[in-house]
Design a protein that fits this description.
Layout (H helix, E strand, L loop, with lengths): L2 H19 L3 H12 L3 H21 L3 H12 L6 H17 L3 H14 L6 H9 L4
Length: about 130
């Protein structure tokens, strides 16, 4: 992989960020997907951020099911630090819950809870998901 390919990835990544800040979600998603499609070795510095930003963009578009796919993919990035894992799992749980997948969301939030009982509002989210629905 040459420096040129790496610059290309960086350009697409930065364009994606700029489009997202301008509220141009479709354009941002397109740029992030170009980076996400790159061979893993090439895209390593951007993989996790890119997948996360794709997750956020699809949440903004009201497509939590698609967002969950990207958060899940971000979690598969090699050598993630524990804080990133917590944040991604939490975001994945929110996406799953929004997509109407309470069982999956409960499992994901439970993984966050197991790592850090005080993480954001994870305890309340678990309690809400465990309430019997009548």
């Amino acid at each position: 992989m040459g420096a040129e390919e790496e610059e290309d990835l960086e350009t697409h990544y930065n364009l994606g960020i700029a489009f997202r800040e301008m509220g141009l979600l479709e354009e941002a998603i397109s740029e992030f997907q170009k980076v996400a499609k790159a061979p893993i070795a090439a895209a390593v510095p951007y993989t996790m951020q890119c997948c996360t930003l794709l997750g956020l963009a699809f949440m903004d578009k009201g497509q939590p099911g698609v967002a969950a796919i990207w958060y899940d993919r971000a979690l598969r990035t090699p050598d993630l630090d524990p804080e990133s894992i917590l944040a991604l799992r939490y975001d994945l749980g929110v996406a799953q819950e929004s997509a109407g997948e309470p069982v999956a969301a409960l499992k994901t939030f439970s993984q966050v809870y197991a790592m850090n009982i005080d993480y954001r509002d994870v305890g309340e989210r678990i309690a809400a998901l465990q309430k019997p629905t009548r």
